Amino acid sequence: MGPRPHLSETDVLFLNEQPALPPAGTPASPLITLPNSRALATSIRATAQVFEDPQSLALLARIQQVAPSDANVLIIGETGTGKELIARHVHALSQRSNHPFVAVNCGAFSESLVESELFGHEKGAFTGAFATKPGWFEAANGGTVFLDEIGDLPLSVQVKLLRILQEREVVRLGSRKPIPIDVRVVAATNVRLEEAVAAGHFREDLFYRLRVVHLALPPLRDRPGDIIPLAHHFIDEYRNRLGYDDIRLHPEAVRKLLCHPWPGNIRELENAIHHALLINKNNIVDADDLHLSSLHIGRNATRPTGRSETAPPGETTDARQALYDALLTLFEGHSEHLYDDIEESVVRAAYHYCHRNQVQTAKLLGISRNIIRARLIKIGEISALK
Q: What CATH code is carried by the domain that includes residue 333?
């Protein structure tokens, strides 16, 4: 197979065909990749997506149904599952495909900067604002703005985002003049927004405004039919970069790939293939070349069978049994603030387990960084000014 054409930064995405398995005559799978994916070697984002597994094919059919509309979309999925790829595909299939696609990571900015980045500011609006600067919503005018990690937006910014969605106009910081905009919003998160709404950390009205269309992106372990097609794509991509001849997967390597739970999803698979190509011998990737992560956190510890393999009642691990016994002891104590005490213990233990890193604590518990920060302030682990 010859080398793929180089992607320029202006490419939104391209569709290609990739054999799912080495034998000739095997059906091909649609493939989506990020533009300029070669510059994303250190990114945690997935750089490719295929639609071979039945779950993925059902998702693709749903995308093709809803993409032509202007409805806002909320994409739910774990880190590394390809949420931005899906957002780009929604944009490419929409009537806005000839207009900008602007991707913004809401968790990448401090609370003091996120409003300016999203909505823009006027000269002199705050210290350091030496010139007028349009925000990302203005930059996406006519097209699509993709808000990744939407759960990390502060409540004050959520209010302004809701107003923009309702009024279709944006007001820069330091200005009173509204600027009309025409954008479609596609938001994504790897946390359960319903819990954030219940906890008062995400506005319910904004949640429903964003969730006109809901796309649930399954983790890689739950769509095993995509694993080998993705592996072949990454083999082809990296062998071209490295200048190698054809590389084959040994049957034992295929079995190892299919049995791994992939806690890091597509990005973990890409890294594993890249490393395997660096150390393989005789142009064959065997099982020993695949150095896979042993990290299994909570729900990520299931095998890729499409269903969870949790133990039935009465067959818990020692750690779960110890936790169960500890909870029974607490219940017998009839504490007046029992739930708060349990929550405090969980948050405090997770925070110290993650070496006092708020971002890692949020990922470990599967909730947003804003929720973790509020809990840590409440229990006195950090200062409100930190």
A: 1.10.10.60
Phi–psi pair at 21, nearest 5 degrees: -140, 155
pTM of the model: 0.70
Pull the structure tokens for residue 162. Answer: 């809701």
Q: Are residues 174 and 84 in the same domain?
A: yes
How many Å separate Cα 270 from the centre of its chain? 15
Report which secondary-structure segment, H or E, holds 112: helix 111-119
Segments forming the whole domain that contains residue 260: 248-297
Alpha-carbon distances, residue 307 vs 257, 298, 303, 304 (angstroms):
17, 14, 8, 8
Model pLDDT for residues 84-118, shown as the tens digit of each residue: 999 999 999 999 999 999 999 988 887 778 888 89
- Segments in 215-264 forming alpha helices (H): 227-242, 251-259
Are the CB atoms for 29 and 50 separated by under 8 Å?
yes
Q: Are residues 267 and 148 in the same domain?
A: no
